[in-house]
Amino acid sequence: MTLSLERPLVLVGAGKMGAALLSGWLDKGLSPAQVFVRDPAPTSDIAELVAARGIALNATVHDMAAARPSVVLVAIKPQAMGDVLPALALLVHAETMFISIAAGTSLHRLKELLGADVHAVRAMPNTPAAIGRGITVACANERVTAAQREIAQQLLAAVGNVDWVENEAQIDAVTAISGSGPAYVFYMVECLAAAGEALGLDPVLAMKLARDTVSGSGEMLHLSSEPVSQLRANVTSPGGTTAAALDVLMGEGGLSPLLRRAALAARDRARVLGK
């Protein structure tokens, strides 16, 4: 499906996630002429991209307001929201939807910074969006129309799967699981490689084994319809090597309670960042 909008899109913040979204939109057919990018310090990659595709970079707020954008997607750090968003209040309009992907920043906070009339969606994507395999969960405020929600769905789906929740409090939990989750997986690869080294493997081989094992297992998860518990059981012979390892990982103080503590810490930090 080709992605198109009746009026322009403004991307505020072109860091890793903003750039991933922009690339996904362009790959899905969004016209570069419909895009404004606003970033005070764009990376060389983004600067080259916008120059090559003819995308407007750092236009004035008045120029963007005159274009009456369909969407303003805010992809900046939550700590910067208080400094950046009030200047964008001029863009607030009944035909304009703001989408924020800043961790912890609530719909109420967006209303405080942009005005009571803002049509706002709060979303949490994750970094696999850079390869079109992200997962995003979103929540809309009461002013977002059905048509605007469909636009948000199309934009977010350009980089992966999308789910919606009605209870905004769940977004902080989503942040802890899928938003931060890729870092947990990457750290597990580091730890698995380190374990291989401790067993006497060459560091290069240990890292290759760890990376390929995790990426291959992830692809099996993606392609298989079997429950995750069954995929685990398929690898685990009674009394075998995998069972011996799982006795440790699934034992008292093992992986499950550790991940619960980690996710709780991430969720609580999201709540702090949103204040």
Layout of helices and strands, plus pairs?
Blueprint: E1 9-12, H1 16-27, E2 35-38, H2 44-53, E3 56-57, H3 61-66, E4 71-74, H4 81-84, E5 97-100, H5 107-114, E6 119-124, E7 134-140, H6 146-157, E8 160-164, H7 170-179, H8 181-198, H9 203-223, H10 228-235, H11 241-249, H12 255-273
Please characterize this protein's 3D structure:
The chain has 275 residues and is an alpha/beta fold. Helices cover 50% and strands 13% of the residues. The protein is built from 12 helices and 8 strands. Strands 3-2-1-4-5-6-7-8 form an 8-stranded mixed β-sheet, sandwiched between helices. α7 (170-179) crosses α12 (255-273) and α8 (181-198) crosses α9. The longest helix has 21 residues, at 203-223. 34% of the residues are buried.
Largest sheet: 8 strands, mixed
Mean pLDDT: 93
Class from secondary-structure proportions: alpha/beta
Strand order of the largest sheet: 3-2-1-4-5-6-7-8
Shape: elongated
**Multimerization state:** single chain
